[in-house]
Specification:
The protein has helices spanning about 10-20, 120-135, 140-145, 170-175, and strands at about 5-10, 25-30, 35-40, 40-45, 55-60, 65-70, 75-85, 85-95, 105-110, 115, 150-155, 160-165, 180-185, 185-190, 195-200, 210-215, 220-225, 240. It is mostly beta strands. Strands 1, 5, 6, 7, 8, 9, 10, 15, 16 and 17 form a 10-stranded mixed β-sheet that branches.
Length: about 240
């Protein structure tokens, strides 16, 4: 698997939960089974990695902590946390294309509190299907027929608005939009970064703060962007046609 630069919107609650979680260590990997160690106890979870029903599943690291990854038509990342002598999935990050119009969808949800089991890939589709439905009605005709650049909103956060921009047919064919961020009434073009919008399960309308997830060796690192240091403010953006 190739590690890539990812930008995400994470709530402060999600970042706090990551910091306060009980430490999880990988004790042993045996075939598709993984034995974890938490506070001098070991827990074995069967059939959570390797091939299953057409999906590739793997054990990765996010913030130096064991996490899970799955891939088929798209890619999913799962962060783990330990409590009450069990391991739970806390966050899900998904990266895939809409089967309806080919637009890129990068979304996530935290606060899942879902007990880890071998069916974690299947229940992720509860969210993936909903995210697909949100963007399936976006009309790409102006770009396909008239080669007019299009934009579509991908964030409802009132403080920081985010849009995808498809400037040409190649952007749409390869599903590689540029991302536009509006902060304090000013607009900035972030280029073709892998930007995720992440909400809390308990309150999908909760305001979010910026964060960046980037590869560091063979793992991912999450950095809070509450002070906006990672927003590229050197490239102002101009308005183009918006599609809702």
């Amino acid at each position: 698997m190739t590690l890539r630069y990812i930008v995400a919107f994470l709530s402060l609650t999600a970042l706090s939960n990551l910091a306060d979680a009980v430490e999880i260590e990988v004790e042993k990997i045996s075939g598709k089974d993984v034995t974890f160690k938490i506070e001098n106890r070991t827990l074995t979870y069967n059939n959570i990695i390797g091939e299953m029903d057409g999906f590739y599943r793997d054990l990765i690291k996010i913030d130096s902590k064991p996490s899970l990854y799955s891939a088929a038509d798209g890619e999913n990342y799962y962060t783990l946390e330990a409590k009450e002598n069990k391991i739970y999935i806390n966050c899900l990050y998904s990266d895939f294309r809409s089967p309806t119009n080919g637009l890129r969808i990068r979304r996530g949800v935290c606060g899942l509190d879902k007990i880890l089991d071998s069916e974690y890939v299947d229940w992720a589709f509860e969210y993936i299907n909903a995210w697909q439905a949100e963007i399936s009605n976006v009309d790409t005709t102006p770009l396909l027929k008239n080669k007019v650049p299009i934009e579509t909103s991908v964030s409802q956060d009132p403080a920081t608005k985010v849009r995808q921009r498809y400037s040409n047919l190649s952007d749409l064919e390869n599903s590689t939009p540029s991302y536009i961020i509006e902060v304090a009434g000013k607009c900035y073009n972030q280029g073709k970064v892998n930007l995720y919008i992440v909400n809390q399960k308990q309150s999908l309308e909760t305001s979010s703060t910026l964060a960046v997830i980037e590869p560091a060796g063979d793992e991912f690192k999450i950095h809070s962007l509450s002070d906006e240091p990672y927003i590229n403010k050197r490239t102002p953006c101009s308005q183009t046609m918006k599609v809702k």
